[in-house]
């Protein structure tokens, strides 16, 4: 079964295999059913905002669907009728969420077409139903199918166990969005390697990754990291961070001296960072 049979044809879709992303929002929704066209409603939105590969904000909002929440949904999510009384309705909630997102923010979800169908339906309750949810998206379900087409299941509950992220999918929007971000990070490293930034050359996970690469691949990836370092300003004294990253690159080319030299470079970086804090 080919993974691309399930690839969305939505014009807002971004190919998850084209380039690694470090600025985006991962979202998850809880609903009263599967399809908004059949009367199912949003009851919760949760999201984590990522900037430069780091978590910078969280969002969590219950929504009053103005209808009874089915018992099986309450059993799954823990959300009941009393919890949503007095919460924003769907029109208010989608306006607040879109404002929190900000313009042109890339969103990410697992099985994104499901979440987008409810966000689109919510947006249509605003301004006379003229608009769709105005954000481009990445689907981590599509990404998983591409990376591991041999897997019989690509459900979040299965993938978080496979990647050692967690044992249970909680079925609450914020906690699920948090796990799905960790899932994207794991798949991004698996597919694109450790390319988040030159600072991560000091991260043990990224060091091990670079050491495992073939020399030609390692040289290419280090060159990319050095280009990032070259864009940094010399604010920290006589030695720039570019020079430090260059020394790190030399370490990877000298396997015999790896451990001792790496410790020396890490000490230098710590000293530079302490100097930076002192200047701040």
Descriptive report:
The protein has 280 residues and is α/β, with parallel strands linked by helices. Helices cover 46% and strands 12% of the residues. The chain has helices at residues 71-77, 81-84, 90-101, 112-123, 140-147, 156-162, 173-192, 204-212, 215-230, 241-252, 258-279, and strands spanning 24-31, 42-51, 54-62, 107-109, 137-139. It has a five-stranded mixed beta sheet with strand order 3-2-1-4-5, sandwiched between helices. The radius of gyration is 22 Å and the shape is globular. It starts with 23 loop residues before the first strand and ends with a helix.
Could you say which overall geometry the principal axes of the C-alpha atoms support? globular
Number of helices: 11
The percent range for helix content is 40-55%
**What's the SSE pattern?**
EEEHHHEHEHHHHHHH
Tell me what portion of residues adopts beta-strand conformation. 5-15%
Give Rg in angstroms.
22 Å
Supply the helix-strand structural class.
Answer: alpha/beta
Residue-averaged pLDDT, rounded? 80
Largest sheet: 5 strands, mixed
Number of E strands: 5
**First and last CA, distance:** 56 Å
Which spans of ≥5 residues are poorly predicted at pLDDT below 50? Answer: 230-249, 251-256
Strand order of the largest sheet: 3-2-1-4-5
Characteristic terms for this protein:
5-stranded mixed beta sheet, single chain, 12% strand, 46% helix, 5 strands, 280 residues, globular, alpha/beta
Q: Could you outline the blueprint of secondary structure elements for this entry?
A:
Layout: E1 24-31, E2 42-51, E3 54-62, H1 71-77, H2 81-84, H3 90-101, E4 107-109, H4 112-123, E5 137-139, H5 140-147, H6 156-162, H7 173-192, H8 204-212, H9 215-230, H10 241-252, H11 258-279
Parallel strand pairs: 1-4, 4-5
Antiparallel strand pairs: 1-2, 2-3
């Amino acid at each position: 079964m080919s993974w691309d049979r399930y690839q969305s044809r939505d014009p807002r879709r971004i190919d998850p295999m084209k380039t690694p992303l470090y600025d985006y929002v991962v979202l998850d929704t809880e609903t009263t059913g599967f399809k908004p066209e059949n009367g199912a409603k949003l009851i919760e939105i949760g999201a984590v905002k990522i900037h430069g590969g780091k978590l910078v904000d969280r969002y969590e909002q219950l929504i009053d669907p103005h209808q009874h929440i089915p018992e099986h949904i309450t059993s799954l999510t823990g959300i009941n009728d009393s919890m949503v009384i007095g919460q924003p309705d769907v029109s208010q909630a989608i306006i607040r969420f879109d404002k929190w997102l900000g313009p042109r923010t890339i969103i990410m979800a697992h099985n994104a077409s499901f979440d987008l169908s409810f966000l689109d339906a919510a947006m249509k309750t605003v301004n006379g139903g003229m608009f769709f949810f105005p954000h481009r998206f990445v689907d981590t379900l599509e990404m998983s199918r591409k990376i591991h087409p041999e897997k019989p299941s690509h459900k979040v509950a299965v993938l978080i166990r496979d990647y050692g992220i967690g044992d249970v999918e909680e079925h609450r929007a914020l906690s699920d969005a948090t796990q799905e971000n960790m899932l994207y990070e794991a798949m991004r490293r698996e597919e694109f390697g450790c390319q988040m930034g030159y600072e991560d050359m000091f991260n043990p996970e990224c060091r091990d990754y670079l050491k495992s690469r073939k020399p030609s691949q390692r040289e290419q990836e280090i060159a990319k990291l050095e280009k990032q370092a070259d864009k940094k300003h010399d604010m920290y004294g006589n030695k720039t961070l570019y020079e430090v990253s260059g020394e790190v690159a030399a370490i990877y080319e000298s396997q015999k001296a790896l451990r001792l030299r790496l410790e020396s470079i890490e000490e230098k970086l710590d000293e530079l960072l302490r100097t930076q804090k002192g200047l701040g």
